[in-house]
Amino acid sequence: MTTYDEKDLINNDYESTTTGGDDPKYIAIRDRERVNKKELYEVIYFCNSFLANHNLKEKGSFQKVEKLLRHPDASKIVMRDALNAFVLNNWNKNLV
């Protein structure tokens, strides 16, 4: 499986440190359910997971997921399942 990292992101304004008490190597129930779209490692993980779940491999697809995460219609969506649904439902629309 191809995975991408921070150098493959379009934007560079993510927080590279974890928020209070958050450990990037520990995935608790809350981390499995929610996505902090400001945290570098969470955005990278979400984008790579989406690609893996949908058999996508291109860097452009990784960046498209990132763009959809930052779309205004997704701004209040924090639950992982809802974000996955949003990206999937808008994949073929001309939002980005």
Write the layout of secondary structure elements.
Blueprint: H1 29-33, H2 40-53, H3 59-69, H4 80-90
Helix pairs in contact: 2-3
Overview of this protein structure:
The protein has 96 residues and is mainly alpha-helical. It has 4 helices and no strands. The chain has helices at residues 29-33, 40-53, 59-69, 80-90. The radius of gyration is 13 Å and the shape is globular.
Average pLDDT, rounded to a whole number, is 88
Number of domains: 1
Overall morphology: globular
How many helices does DSSP assign?
4
Assign the structural class, choosing from mainly alpha, mainly beta, alpha/beta, alpha+beta, or little secondary structure.
Answer: mainly alpha
Tell how many strands the DSSP assignment holds: 0
- State the helical fraction: 40-55%
Alpha-carbon Rg, integer: 13 Å
Query: Any low-confidence stretches, pLDDT <50, length ≥5?
Result: none
Beta fraction? under 5%
- SSE succession: HHHH
Query: Mind describing the biggest β-sheet?
Result: none
Q: What distance lies between the first and last C-alpha atoms, to the nearest angstrom?
A: 25 Å
